[in-house]
Amino acid sequence: QNWFFDQIGVDNITIDFDSTVITRYGDQQGSAKGYNPNKRGRNSHHPLIAFVGQTRMVANAWLRPGNTADSSSCKAFMQETF
Questions:
Q1: d(Cα 17, Cα 80) in Å, to the nearest integer?
Q2: Which one-letter DSSP state was computed for residue 70?
Q3: Mind listing the pLDDT tens digit for each residue in 14-66?
Q4: Cα 27 to the chain's mean position, in Å?
Q5: What is the pTM of this model?
Q6: Could you tell me the residue ranges of all domains in the chain?
Q7: What is the DSSP letter of 50?
Q8: Is 26 left (phi over 0), alpha (psi -120 to 50) or beta?
Q9: Fewest CB atoms within 10 Å of the CB: 32, 37, 51, 62?
């Protein structure tokens, strides 16, 4: 990991954590009905994503079912990311 950040000239990093809703059409594995502001009642996924703030590169991501609460498994996700 240090080698990677040395190559792009970043001394310190900021990790940004976010979740989003991905609407699914059809019967995708792991999708479920949950909070979906754009297509209510549709199956979706609710991924957690960690970005390196300085580069906007993805550091980690978990694809979760659409019926997963925002804070569900956040602690484990952060521990895995760091």
A1: 12
A2: T
A3: 999 999 999 999 888 999 999 888 889 899 999 999 998 888 889 999 999 99
A4: 21
A5: 0.78
A6: 12-81
A7: E
A8: left
A9: 37
